[in-house]
Amino acid sequence: MPDAPVRYRSAEEDSGRWLDFPFRPGDIVISTRSKSGTTWVQMICALLVFQTPDLPAPLAALSPWLDWLGTPIEDVRARLAAQSHRRFIKTHTPLDGIPLDDRATYVVVARHPLDMAVSLYHQGDNLDRERVRHLTGQPPARPRTAPRPGLRDWLLSWMDSGVDPRDDLDSLPGALWHLSDAWRRRTEPNVVLVHYGDLSADRDREMRRLAARLEIPVSERAWPRLVEAAGFESMRAGADRLIPNQDGVIKSSTAFFRQGRSGSGRALLSAGEWDRYLARAAEMAPPDLLAWLHR
Fold it and tell me: What share of the chain is helix, strand, coil (3-state, %, to 5)?
């Protein structure tokens, strides 16, 4: 009998909302850490499912975030139950916190942790924190008494954090916990790992690979239009319908798609700080995963 899923809870998310989820054959679960390519892979799945860039609804409605406490779980489940197309569902929960169903395919997206962290830092300025707190039932925040640290100082602190990964999945320990769990399952037939860097380097190839793993046929004539629609500039141009902002938690749609480049995190570190990062990562993840993740 499989182990019961781990329960991950924070002020804004609860993986317990997955318990007793009624899966359907063909369901796609997109499991990522924050700012690791979530919206990108949701868009790719939407393009593959609908075979057109002209999506029938905003992306967040087509692919709801099941764990988020800002939307009542009854509403999320009702929306998914009403969908007649092949479903693709967003989660920031590691696979050990989700029921693993043979009828579903689990797509885990990885990004270099330092680049993920840089994007997290910038997203902090683009979130309406009070709106988030209101939607998730938290009291108003106390006024900040000290200025926010600059990006480099914040990144070094993030890199050195010794927090329990289960208490902060957006920390370095949390990101490597999430990916290490998926890495152990990578040979399972319904688990697919996608690397942000591979998508950046050859989007056409990676979209075709994902379509094959999801067993979605695409005509050769359709591919150029679908690949173009999944490009950074195309997605940024359509940001109002693509970003997860149906509840008004994001201040700027275009700022959500900030740059989409890789390497910005490492560029901030000195040689000694990079070595320190590698040593920290080696304490938390296997070497073959890190070789794949950092390449």
Answer: 45, 10, 45
Across the chain, mean pLDDT equals 91
Residue ranges in the chain assigned as alpha helix (H): 38-50, 59-62, 73-82, 113-126, 129-135, 151-160, 172-184, 196-201, 203-213, 223-229, 232-237, 239-242, 253-256, 264-267, 271-282, 287-294
Q: What is the pLDDT of residues 191-222, one digit of tens each?
A: 999 999 999 999 999 999 999 999 999 999 99
Backbone Cα Rg of the chain: 19
Max CA pair span of the chain: 57
Let me know: does 166 contact 9? Beta carbons within 8 Å: no
Considering the candidates 92, 112, 178, 195, report the single residue annotated as catalytic: 92
Count structural domains, the chain. 1
In a domain, 189, yes or no: yes
**Closest-CA residue to 196 (of 295, 65, 60, 51):** 295
2: in domain: no
Q: What's the one-letter identity of residue 5?
A: P
How long, in residues, is the chain?
295
What CATH number has the domain bearing residue 100?
3.40.50.300
Q: Cβ–Cβ contacts within 10 Å for residue 99, how many?
A: 15
Whether 12 and 19 have beta carbons less than 8 Å apart is answered as no
Cα 184 to chain center, whole Å?
Answer: 19
Does residue 6 fall inside a structural domain? Answer: no
For 255, list phi and psi in degrees, rounded to 5. Answer: -70, -20
Give the bridge partners for 14, in sequence order.
9
In a domain, 196, yes or no: yes
- CB 30 within 8 Å of CB 89: yes
Note down the domain range covering 256.
15-294
Can you give the pTM of this predicted structure? 0.92
Active site residue 122: no
What are the pLDDT digits (tens) for 109-137? 999 999 999 999 987 676 677 777 777 78
